[in-house]
Amino acid sequence: MEFGPYLMLAALEGAVTAAVLALMAAGLSLVFGVMRVVNVAHGEFYMLGAVLAFVVAGMAGGGALGFVAALVAVPLIVGALAVAADVTVLKRVGYDPERTIVATIGILYILQQVTLMGYGPDARPVAAPFNQRIALPWVEWGAGGPSLYWPWGLSITSYKLFVIGAAVVVLAGLWVLMTRTRIGLVMRATQLDRETAQAFGIPVERVYALVFGLGAGLAALAGVLIVPIQQAHYLMGGDALLLSFIVVIIGGLGSLPGTLIAALLIGLSDGILSVFFSPTLAKIVATLLVALVLVFRPQGLMGKAPR
Amino acid sequence: MLEVTGIDAGYGPVQVLRGLSLAVRPGEITCLLGRNGAGKTTTMKAIMGLLPLSAGRITLEGEDIGRLPAHEVPRRGIGYIPQGRRLFAELTVAQNLEIGLMTRNSPRHVLARVLDLFPRLADRMGQRAETLSGGEQQMLATARALCLEPRVLLLDEPTEGLQPSMIEAIRQVVIRLKSEGVAILLVEQRLDAVLSAADRVVFIENGQVRETAGAVDLRARPEMLKRYLGV
Ligand SMILES: Nc1ncnc2c1ncn2[C@@H]1O[C@H](COP(=O)(O)OP(=O)(O)O)[C@@H](O)[C@H]1O
Ligand SMILES: [Mg+2]
Predict the structure, then answer these.
(1) pLDDT at residue A2 is higher than 80
(2) Residues of B in contact with A209 (CB under 8 A)
């Protein structure tokens, strides 16, 4: 394959990574933005999403129906679990920034070990509901002007396109929720000034529980979307957490647009560098980007400098 | 109306208020005076339920509100204008007011009435609160509290850093609310702004009430001001 089509293929793979990463990082960023909680267990909610997708899809009889059942039910289950963790653990430590880090590390290990005991150490797949290969055209500048042709190997599956589309739809929905609805207004007011929010009747602890559940639900959704591409495994949360932190730091903690831009940046560079050079170089570049951002723009690309 | 009886409160292990009592009556302005750090803001936060009480009671028309969750207190009809305004800086004027309206599910006509009192805000509904001038921000903080049609209004240094015309505008609104029967608790440094309007003055020092005087008594005994405020 020539360079152009090859680059496009790499970029499409990167866009799938970016889509999943954006969903996950948006949840992490939302939780930090509103609650000031650094959720170290966020990767485990993603892992649970993938593992439960396997379980739920199996219970619903597999196939396309099984996948759809998982897509709907799993984020709700994981969200409810996170709400329970919020009320029983985070609320008890008073949402103190340092103590919640320790508490979420505890939640991380509990979720990981319980999954190991119940689900086992194997990686298991869920079948994609549809998985047609779609060949993509490329433009060639021949003697008679530009013409289209279909290079061998330049293709994407319909499921991967679906993942990108689903992420776009969900993130757009999140944006509308935060900026156009009452509950979004309440969440933003809580984020801006917790005490004054209370003085105007906002039950901030309920808002926190909701935000924590929503953040975990987004991670779980990312997990469900990824299982047909990558198998579900009880240790898959670690890398995902690291990449989400990288995205959130580059984008600016608490900024949804920043998170999106950073997810695209990291996802695309990961896809392209992995294809042309090596996955290791992709990780090195991502880490370097974080270092550069921390040195030259500590608040992130779209974050606000502390006042 | 609002009765605070022997409350102890503070921040974590730091006790600030010690057996503090005061009463705020409908249609009256009660003024809380004291030096910086005396505990005036802390008193207001304790009334709003933002600080846990370790002793004492707070009642509103007989209902014990001292141990309600903080978000339930404003729903009883207490409007709070915090020191330093504490607007939701990144939200628009309209959104800040919306949060006030949501507190007690106020009907829509309340907004029209509030904007009547502060016409300058009506022209700036889509503007972010942080971009308003100091006077406009104070108007917004006041308007936000009025959106919940309060029975009791707590104002913590509302004229801090404002130019005279703004101070007068705020003062007119407070006097109007008083005439409508709202119970008002006012913290104010500018005595000239206070003494003409207040019905009762409470002096506090080290988190304790030292003296309570009617406005008439205070005019007769101006040495009280010197003793508690050093002016
Ligand atoms: N968040 C806080 N944590 C600990 N101490 C505080 C806090 N806020 C105020 N204080 C202390 O409480 C005392 C009373 O403060 P405050 O009520 O703000 O006084 P003021 O009468 O000037 O409004 C002061 O000694 C102050 O240092
Ligand atoms: Mg004060």
Answers:
(1) no
(2) none
